[in-house]
Amino acid sequence: NAGVMQNPRHLVRRRGQEARLRCSPMKGHSHVYWYRQLPEEGLKFMVYLQKENIIDESGMPKERFSAEFPKEGPSILRIQQVVRGDSAAYFCASSPRQSNQPQHFGDGTRLSIL
Amino acid sequence: DQQVKQNSPSLSVQEGRISILNCDYTNSMFDYFLWYKKYPAEGPTFLISISSIKDKNEDGRFTVFLNKSAKHLSLHIVPSQPGDSAVYFCAATYGNNRLAFGKGNQVVVIP
Predict the structure, then answer these.
(1) How many CB atoms lie within 10 A of CB B101?
(2) What is the C-alpha separation between B45 and B4, in angstroms, rounded?
(3) What is the pLDDT of residues B66-79, one digit of tens each?
(4) Residues of B53-85 as b/e, b for ≥16 C-beta within 10 angstroms?
(5) pLDDT of B21-47, one tens digit each?
């Protein structure tokens, strides 16, 4: 399956712990996007990255959240000192280039905070 | 700030009939519009898109119509099939490919 791969599919953390979510884009795609979906809501943009560069992080909370897309390996969304409100589905998408090309999504990571 | 709005959260339609989903947007800068379908516990799947320079795009059973002056687009599915039962999201973007999503419409196709 050459689609967008996210892991883990489910992640449970206690308040104050760290959560790391991973995303491998589709083969040939160099642009990665992270979105968050709260219950009964649409997806909300968080961050847009290319290899080794953050292009747009205007949707990221100012504190505790960070993202990277290193030269080698998957993109990582990191949430430090998680709180109950971080419980959500986090989706990663990728596209081949910046111009109008549809983004293709992974199946998401469901993060639950105890 | 909800830039993309989908009203009528749910829709039930008989198998074989037409499903029509509507979407309104407020940002006149949007130049590319997409529809995604989502099953529970899965990611959104791309269905069809349309550029702002067109008013219609068709792909098999799916047709998207864009009315720029009204800032409105719609998705037509005909004929509807039971496998079409899912949540449908309208999305829009400009420039940097950052997508703005609506809240989604639940479609139930009754066999």
Answers:
(1) 24
(2) 18
(3) 999 999 999 999 99
(4) eeeeeeeeebbbbbeeeebebbbbbeebeeebb
(5) 999 999 999 999 999 999 998 999 999
Residue A89 to residue B4: CA distance in whole angstroms:
20
Query: Chain A: residue nearest B31 by CA?
Result: A100
pLDDT at B1: 66
pLDDT of residue B94: 79
Average pLDDT over residues B54-62: 97
Closest CA to B7 of B27, B22, B28: B22
In whole angstroms, what is the distance from residue A18 CA to residue A24 CA? 20
> What ranges make up the beta strands (E) of chain A?
5-7, 10-13, 19-24, 31-37, 43-50, 53-56, 65-68, 75-79, 88-95, 104-105, 109-113
Question: What residues in B contact A106, CB-CB < 8 Å?
Answer: 43
Cβ-based neighbours of A89, under 8 Å, separated by 6 or more = A36, A37, A108, A109, A110, A111
Q: How many angstroms away from the CA of A105 is the closest CA of chain B?
A: 6
**Angstroms from B70 CA to nearest CA on chain A:** 22
Q: How confident is the model at residue A98 (pLDDT cuts 50, 70, 90)?
A: low
In Å, what is the CA distance from B74 to each residue of B32, B35, B37, B58? 14, 9, 14, 12
Model confidence band, residue A26 (pLDDT cutoffs 50, 70, 90): very high
